[in-house]
Structures are given as structure tokens and as C-alpha cells.
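hiii, so i know i said id send this last week but things got crazy w the move. better late than never?? heres the sequnce for the chain we talked about at the cafe, plus the structure i predicted for it. fair warning i was half asleep when i ran it
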Amino acid sequence: FQAEDGIRDVERSRGLGDVYKRQLETGQSIGANYIALGHNKDDLMETLFLNILFSRRISAMIPKQDLFDGLFYIIRPMILVDEDYTHRYAENRVFPMVNKECQYAGKTKREWIKQLISKMEQENPGIRKNIVRSLFHPKPDYLWGRYESIADKLLK
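okay and structure toks below
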């Protein structure tokens, strides 16, 4: 997918793998096999929509994810906490805030999805809760995984 500025989103996220690699290496060097990440409910919804719209799959993040057959575990203790709440909490506790200094801040597909979800919530209050609740109630029989072998023929 090409953004308006001609740079592919994949190119923007290349450094992300390096970040995870450094986290795993640091964890290994100190003997830790659990790595806690600060993903929140907004990240969860945005990831779901990004995967559906740009990766052609229905998937999101899970609270606990094992890597390399249990050598490491990624945990997301704040996955059901609103991003706004974490900001307010940090401000009340006077935690230092880290500014996004990425040259692409505000120009990514994730930012576009964030704005889309906000607009949907303004027009239909409660939609954010419904998006998250839908992850707890999948209906696999109504998903098309079993038709994967004929997908190319059906979607020409």
C-alpha cells in the first residue's frame, strides 16, 4: 500500500522488528523471559482494523503471547485500559511524557485508523466497546478460512 507521500507503510515499520529484537535480547541478557509491553485498548482496536484492512486477516493482539516455544512471553497488562486513561494517570502522577519524534507521526495508517474509530464513536456512541467485545465473541463458522483454497478464484 502506498501512502500519499509515496512511502510504503512497511518501510515505516521496518524499525519495529529491531525494537522487539532488542527487547528480547535485553530480556535474555538479564535472565527475564517475560516482557511487559504497554499496549492499551486503543492499540488493540487499531491493530484489529489495520490487520483487516491492510494485511487481509482478522487478528489482533492477545494479552499473553508465547514466543519461541515459551522461551519468552510477551504480556500486555494494560490491553483493556483506554489510552486516554493512561495519559490522564501519567499526568496526575507527573510521569515524564515521551513525545513522538518519529518523522511519520500523524501520517501513518494507524493514525488514520485512530481517527476513523473516533469518528465512528462520535456518530455511534458505544461502538468502541462493541469493537472490543466482538473479540470475545468470534463466530468461526461464519469466517471464510475453510474456503481459502478457492479465495483467489472468488476474489478476482
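btw DSSP finds seven helices and three strands in the chain. thought thatd interest u
miss u guys!!
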